[in-house]
């Protein structure tokens, strides 16, 4: 049972057209995300989408950045149209915020914390791609910011199943409650 005095938000992170097809090969992989989003909406828990995107010319990217540094040479001066949009399978409603970040953590270069504080959110339910990327980085930073945390283990996907297992079974439980989407939905009742 959720603490009635806490206020939660579901973060749906990096579920973009450029990312989802590389990790989720079928609709079954996306079902836990859809379950969590539907439950959050039906329980009036805000759903906040987080995406990574850059300005034309990539002024935010240093060539020293190993993850993003090669992007300008791979994609040209402008990001590919539509690739940064949220995937159709988890499409946001018009009233749901879409936060844009410029690094791995959902907080990096975004106004996420402003939105959370303005809405007195103190508990974050994390979902996204990849477990070893945005989920790990956001969990660490959110824990340092004193948010209570829940990770939806089956609404996180990683290219390496063993890395996903180690994170969800051994690392994340030190700073978050780790539940499946269905377990989380049941906890709301």
Description:
With 189 residues, the protein is of the alpha/beta class. The chain has helices at residues 20-23, 27-42, 71-75, 112-118, 131-144, 161-171, 181-187, and strands at 8-13, 47-52, 98-101, 123-129, 148-157, 177-179. Helix 2 (27-42) runs parallel beside helix 7. The radius of gyration is 16 Å and the shape is globular. The chain has a six-stranded parallel β-sheet with strand order 3-2-1-4-5-6, with helices on both faces. The protein has one domain (8-53, 83-187): Isochorismatase-like (Rossmann fold). The model has no long low-confidence stretch (mean pLDDT 89).
Write the layout of secondary structure elements.
Elements: E1 8-13, H1 20-23, H2 27-42, E2 47-52, H3 71-75, E3 98-101, H4 112-118, E4 123-129, H5 131-144, E5 148-157, H6 161-171, E6 177-179, H7 181-187
Parallel strand pairs: 1-2, 1-4, 2-3, 4-5, 5-6
Helix pairs in contact: 2-7
In brief:
Residues 8-183 form the Isochorismatase-like domain. With 189 residues, the protein is an alpha/beta fold.
The low-confidence parts are none
Element string (H = helix, E = strand): EHHEHEHEHEHEH
Question: What integer value in Å does the Rg equal?
Answer: 16 Å
Q: What percent of the residues sit in helical stretches (DSSP H or I)? A: 25-40%
- Order of strands across the main sheet: 3-2-1-4-5-6
CATH-level-4 superfamily name = Isochorismatase-like
């Amino acid at each position: 049972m959720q603490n009635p005095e806490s206020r939660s938000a579901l973060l749906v992170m990096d579920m973009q057209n450029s990312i989802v097809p590389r990790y989720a090969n079928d609709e079954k992989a996306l079902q836990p995300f859809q379950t969590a989003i539907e439950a959050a909406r039906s329980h009036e828990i805000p759903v906040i989408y987080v995406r990574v995107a850059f300005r034309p010319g990539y002024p935010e990217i240093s060539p020293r950045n190993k993850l993003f540094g090669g992007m300008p040479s791979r994609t040209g001066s402008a990001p590919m149209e539509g690739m940064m949009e949220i995937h159709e399978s988890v499409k946001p409603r018009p009233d749901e915020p879409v936060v844009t970040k410029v690094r791995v953590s959902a907080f990096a270069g975004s106004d996420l914390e402003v939105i959370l504080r303005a809405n007195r959110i103190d508990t974050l339910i994390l979902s996204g791609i990849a477990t070893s990327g945005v989920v790990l980085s956001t969990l660490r930073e959110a824990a340092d910011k004193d948010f209570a945390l829940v990770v939806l283990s089956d609404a996180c996907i990683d290219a390496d199943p063993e890395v996903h297992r180690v994170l969800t079974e051994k690392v994340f439980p030190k700073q978050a409650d780790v539940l499946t989407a269905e377990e989380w939905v049941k906890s709301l009742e």
